[in-house]
Amino acid sequence: MSKSLKLAAALAVTVAAFAAPFLLAGQRTAVAEEPAAAGAPFAPHQPGAFGLGREATPEEVAAWDIDIRPDGTGLPEGRGTVAEGDELFQEQCAVCHGVFGEGAGRYPVLAGGLDSLTNERPEKTIGSYWPYLSTVYDYIRRAMPFGNAHSLSDDQIYALTAYLLYLNDVVTDEEFELSKANFADIHLPNEGNFIPDDRQEEAHYAADAEPCMSACTPEPVKIVMHARILDVTPGSIDDEEGAGAGSVD
Amino acid sequence: MQAKKGINRRGLLTAGLAMGGAALSARAASAGGDPAILEVQDWNRYLGDGVQARPYGTPSQFEAHVVRRDVEWLTASTESSVNFTPLHDLDGIITPNGLCFERHHAGIAEIDPAQHRLMINGLVEKPLVFTMQDLMRFPRVNRVYFLECAANSGMEWRGSQLNGCQYTHGMVHCVMYTGVPLKTVLEEAGLKTNARWVLPEGADAAMMTRSVPIEKALDDCLIAFKMNGEALRPEQGYPLRLVVPGWEGNMWVKWLRRIEVGDQPWQQREETSKYTDLLANGTARRFTWLMEVKSVITSPSPQLPVAHGKGPLVISGLAWSGNGTIKRVDVTTDGGRNWKTARLDGPSLPKALHRFYLDIDWDGSELLIQSRAMDEHGFVQPTKDELRLARGENSIYHNNGIQTWHVKADGTVENVEVA
Q1: Are B18 and B306 in contact (CB under 8 A)?
Q2: Rounded Cα gap, residues B321 and B327, in angstroms
Q3: Which element (helix H / strand E) includes B135?
Q4: In terms of CA atoms, which chain A residue is nearest residue B103?
């Protein structure tokens, strides 16, 4: 069994919950062990064998380990209401994300876009796209407000998360209070629409055909699109408006 | 040549063509020969700078146009933005450190290595903290890998848009990393039997995080502190970054300060809101980690027109695959009707850039040039239309489609699509 096949097999077990046979490699020809490049050249060793590093204190782990999982693991004690979140959001977030989370300028849109995922221009927001609420709390806590991260209290983040639920019509009551206790009960509408990586099943890969080398098209090919029609290249004449139709992420 | 904002392509073209006609040509001038030979030049006579005039060497002043460039309209702020490697100006397979594209989510963290710590916690026998000095005492390895952002070529899903391979394909670089296998460090802490995932985390103000399956972590991931022999550049994660060979660049967490071990993925923002691939039917693929087989012709390309007229022409480009090595690259000059197998030259290393060449005798007529890579597992780079058929146009990420450049009779080059 090739290395990548073993890896794929092992992964299939690990990520069974996501049924993700993601590895494109190893599905075809068995390939010899990768030369020097693969993995560690050293035999497995016992914990602490090098005697390097020192034990982390519980306080140190608590200071850095702030991540939260969809099942609520990692949530701190606390609570906050939609109304409290509204006030905070207008003070600390609206300048970039808009009063209703609609986004100012090119800053991310946080609300709206429901049922837009099959549109020509989908709007991917917490309500329309994100699978888990835990990601909202986790991300605000680690990275927002932009340029002043780690300045919000746990209660404030509950309140902001509640307000974002309200902006996205997941809750409709301004008195709604989000807390550690009711957090994991809330599900976002798009949770069920994420699927495992099945790129290798796409026709162009699955065909596994030798590529054509000559007379591959019946007619000479024609140009059907020019970059210059939509030229947004920096330095080009039409770049000023920033009319670009793309996105990096 | 260098415009205030980005590159002035039209200016560059004119200059390039003018050079082709005169300065770059070694043909004898009418009056007895070439002044470059007949006249004594300043550098033939006077002394140049001595040693230590340039304690850290930089490129020639005549290479000042070889720089990273950004596309201002793409992002709201430069601290959460991207710039692009000038692939068209480079050769071989190694990217110089100062030209490796940048992608930050909260600007460049400037970290004093004496204040940097790496913590391993979660499902381990003993949570550990390492200083940089501790990490330097583990056995280390050297590996050459490409790093490609999953959104490389992402602006081209709806059609040709940016005129230059720097912009269409420049979110890739390839350097040699020196570092400690992640496996070594995880084993030092001791993995519990239910360890299935790790969560690397950055020390910057974005505190970047991604869930990585344990098999990958134990396979070929590195904790790297050097690139091309010298310390990581700040913009590449100094003093410490994760290397996740063949997988999307976002997972290569920079300014690495913590690795948590867990039994489930964490569903972080960068693996839910971002780096998931929306399909035409509204569902989205997640955990699409692997960077598929891909290639691009870097020369000629829109920023590097043919300046010398007909005759010998070197068509050159890069190919890579997250699956391993590149087995073959084919090049067409007629938009994909007929193909010739290009010559791979230089080291062929797994999950690294490969350099290819097709040396042709150009008759001066228009060309539609494309490259098509095949990796060691037989995966063949698809066309953009094949990808659109399978995925729609809203995936943003993982666009590895075949790129077409239109070389016109005057040598200028444009990004086009053909059918």
Answers
A1: no
A2: 10
A3: helix B132-135
A4: A248
Within 10 Å of residue A13's Cβ, how many Cβ atoms?
A: 9
Closest by CA position to A130, among listed A172, A101, A95: A101
Find out whether B89 and B65 touch, Cβ atoms under 8 Å.
yes
Residue B181, pLDDT > 60, answer: yes
Cα separation, A60 vs A66, in Å, equals 11
The 10s digit of each residue's pLDDT in A48-84 is 999 999 999 999 999 999 999 999 999 999 999 999 9
The residues in B 244-283 lying below 8 A from A, measured between CB atoms, are 245, 257-258, 260, 262, 264-269, 272-276, 278, 280-283
* pTM confidence score: 0.90
- Per-residue pLDDT reduced to its tens digit, B279-330: 999 999 999 999 999 999 999 999 999 999 999 999 999 999 999 999 999 9
Contact: A34, B324; criterion CB under 8 Å: yes
CA–CA gap between residue A241 and residue B73 (Å, rounded): 8
State the pLDDT at residue A230: 54
**Can you state the angle between helices A134-143 and A154-167, rounded to 10 degrees?**
130
The SS3 of residue A9 is: helix
Other beta carbons less than 10 A from residue B141's beta carbon:
19
CA distance linking residue B151 with residue B400, whole number of Å: 10
A32: pLDDT strictly greater than 80: no
Residue B100 gets which letter from DSSP? S
Q: How many residues does chain A have?
A: 249
pLDDT number for residue A42: 64
Average the pLDDT over B221-243 and give the result. 98
Report the Cα B359 to chain-centroid distance in Å.
24
Question: DSSP secondary structure string, B231-269?
Answer: EPPGGGTTT-EEE-TTB-GGGS-SSEEEEEEESS----G
DSSP A35-88: -TTSS-SS----TTSS--SEEPPHHHHHHH-----TT-TTPPS-EEEHHHHHHH
Distance (Å) from the alpha carbon of A195 to chain B's nearest alpha carbon = 5
With an 8 Å Cβ cutoff, are A56 and B71 in contact? no
Contact (CB<8Å) B158/A208: no
- CB-CB: which of B77, B121, B285 is closest to A195? B285
Mutation target for A interface from B123, B199, B272: give the one with most A CBs within 10 A: B272
Q: Does A25 touch chain B (CB under 8 A)?
A: yes
- Residues B319/B375, Cβ–Cβ less than 8 Å: no
Contact state of A60 with B154 under an 8 Å Cβ cutoff: no
Interface size A-B, in CB pairs within 8 Å, comes to 397
Type of residue numbered A126: I
Report in angstroms the alpha-carbon separations of B35 from B39, B42, B60: 5, 13, 22
- Of A145, A121, A66, A148, the C-alpha closest to A246 is A121
**Residues contacting B273, CB < 8 A, separation 6+:** A124, A126, A129, A130, A135, A139
- In the chain, the amino acid numbered A28 is R
pLDDT for res B348: 98
A211 interfaces chain B, CB cutoff of 8 Å: yes
Is the Cβ of A43 closer than 8 Å to some Cβ of chain B?
no
Facing B416 at nearest CB: one of A26, A226, A233: A226
Edge-first strand listing for the sheet containing A194-195: A194-195, B284-285, B277-278
Closest CA of chain A from B56, distance in Å: 31
Q: Which of A61, A106, A230 sits opposite B127 (nearest CB)?
A: A61
Beta bridge partners of B405: B369, B415
Would you call A37 and B245 a contact, using CB atoms and an 8 Å cutoff? yes
Asked if residue B239 has a cis previous peptide bond (ω within 30° of 0), the answer is yes
